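Record Cation/H+ exchanger domain-containing protein, 343 aa.
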Amino acid sequence: VHTLKLVINSDAMGFIGFSAGTKFLLTELHGSLKPLLILLVNLILTTYTMVGTGFWLLSPLLPLTADYSAPKRLAVSLIVACLSVARSPSSAIAVITELGAHGAYTSATLSITVLTDIVVVLAFAGTTVAVTALVSNIPGHGPSEDPAVWRVLMLFAFQIAVSVIIGGMLGYIVHITLSLTSALASFVTAAADYATLAFATRATASTAATRRTRKSAGRWSRLRTAGLPHDVVETSKRIITPIALLVAVKIGMSLFESLLVQLAGFAVFEIADWQEQRYGSTLDVPLIVSLVAGFVVANFTTSRLVLNRILHDSSEPVYIAFFTLTGASLQLDALLPDLPAAV
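=>
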């Protein structure tokens, strides 16, 4: 079960990253960057300040923090405030995909959601250092004086840079792969269409020749009732066979393209998980890698429509598995003791 959970999460998160990246269209975001940044800053500062202050004021009354000292209550308040800023790209993308929303407002919403996640990582790095100083009660041990915060920020900046580079390369690899599969699909479809037309023409000609032969032999009136159904059945078989082949080929190519895209996203997260287990850290942020890959395909290649079609056709089973697993992972019994704090 644990392995299945990891597989579903890796596949779904890679898929979500690709979907989010394709929503960032530069043509729709042109001229709106400044308002987006202003809205983003105000949203983060307002949420962080209000949640942190509110939790700090209520902390003496909550069972979770009632027995804590003032520095520890402040530390918990900072962590809760930082976590409250985070948004869920997966939920936003799922709703947008389900409703078929698109346009400038959709791009702005996704931009704020994804940029907020990036800011949350930076905020969490600083908050962690501040919390460590509060809990350890070391005088003068602040974020600006602790070299650990610079190591965290430098590591994060390095991971973002590597993620952008890998994501750009992956985007062009996906573009080349989709171009090849699209060309192959077009060739196979054209061949199947030609075969269908050829079979239909031959079947029609064969039926017409049979009828002319029977009529010229003077048996048309007697065999008309018995012969026509047989001719129709034979003609239908000759026409339906290549049509069924054409449909099977198209379905197979669609499944193959969907599998390629999902394997690409799955591989990104699995490689990151392997790095985490092997070295204790990763060179990249897998969600940023898949997001940049989708962004590159959507804005700098000619495969945007193909990738959008693949993501749309594959979205329902991926989201069903992902959100079903998410719901099954909820442990309400663990939430009940601290329900007032959660509310």
